[in-house]
Amino acid sequence: MGAPWRIVAFPLILPWRDEFWTLPLYFPDLRVGVTPNWPEQLPYEGMPLPPEAEVHPHEFQHYHPGDFRQWQAFEKYRQDQGEGDDMIQAIRSYGQAAAPEPPPSPKAWSLAWQLEKMQADQEAQLLLVDKGEDWLKDIFKAEPWEDRAGLGPAPGVEEMVDPELAQLRYRLWRHVLAPHLQDRSVPLLLGRTSRTLFLTLKGWPNWTVPRTLRLALPGCRSGAQWRTVCGDPGRPPWQPQFGELLDALLTTLADGREPQAALGELQKLAEDELVARWPWPDAWNWNLEIWAPDSAPDETAPVLCWSGAGAAIPPG
Q1: pLDDT truncated to tens, each residue of the chain (316 aa)?
Q2: If DSSP states are collapsed to H, E and C, what string results for 10-56?
Q3: Count of beta carbons in the 10 Å neighbourhood of residue 190
Q4: Which of 99, 137, 225, 257 shows the greatest Cβ crowding within 10 Å of its Cβ?
Q5: CA–CA separation, 26 vs 35, rounded Å?
Q6: DSSP label of 64
Q7: What is the rounded CA–CA span in Å between residue 202 and residue 224?
């Protein structure tokens, strides 16, 4: 058996959710990117947000209204004047192999970082909206309001994501976390829109139902609950066995073998050791999905997904 699978959180910048207290129970060696507002008690080392992720408005202070339009007009004039030179150059280079595209400049990566930061900020605001819906339920529950048909999600669609945006965020993730994305690495989708981002990369909307295995695991949503489950050693006694069984399941899927036996062992561990000995009778479930590789030639590894991350987001 080879080296264990490396599990890497997606996306790159991941705003804090209370449900993430569950992560150290099942993924103690999880690799993370930028972790804004994550508690220091968790055994994860997040990277600092680089300066290029921040937008600097002062860079444009020396421009005056209309300067950008004048510059665009000048660029168009230069392009029109250079059409003849471009034709001569095309004739001279006819039949020659196309030159490889230059690698993205540092400025391009800076813009990608800024976009990722904007997406993370937006996700953090949407989390507040999610909590606001729960607060409104508490406010209105005392009144006998009539049930009315609301605006539900569009049939077969959970969310719409721009394919180019999905590609950019995925490439930035791979660029920054490259040391952790070697052989035998698997993403763990934790962001509010990460599920739809990956489905978009697979070819949304034609590829919206991956071959999925599901595993219900009891979870935590507070530091006190997490410390109770971990106990004095700092990790639950069943954690090493869970890691071994999950690793065996991922290997089985990557090799194209039938996963039911490996999944059954994980489910048995969850029922006999976790649920049966959970400190609270009414456990909140962390629903883990394992997306099996499909038949695509570049698809060789499974994907892990917490189904509670954006599982029912309306379009828009």
Answers
A1: 567 899 999 999 999 999 999 999 999 999 999 998 899 989 899 999 888 777 654 444 554 555 555 555 656 666 666 555 555 566 566 656 666 666 655 677 787 888 888 888 888 777 665 665 555 555 444 444 343 333 233 334 455 567 788 888 888 899 999 988 877 899 999 988 888 888 887 765 555 567 889 999 999 999 999 999 988 777 899 999 999 999 999 999 988 899 999 999 999 999 999 998 898 888 888 999 998 876 554 556 889 998 876 544 333 2
A2: ECCECCCCHHHHHHHHHCCCCECCECCCCCCCCCCCCCCCCHHHCCC
A3: 25
A4: 225
A5: 18
A6: -
A7: 39
Separation of alpha carbons 292 and 303, rounded Å: 7
Rounded CA-CA distance 15/7 in Å is 18
CB atoms within 10 A of CB 313: 17
Amino acid in the structure at residue 93: S
In angstroms, the CA 85 to CA 88 distance is: 5
Q: Name 205's Cβ contacts closer than 8 Å, sequence gap at least 6.
A: 156, 157
Structure tokens given for 162 = 């721009």
Using alpha carbons, select from 168, 177, 178, 173 the residue that is nearest to residue 201.
168
Q: What is the CA radius of gyration of the chain?
A: 24
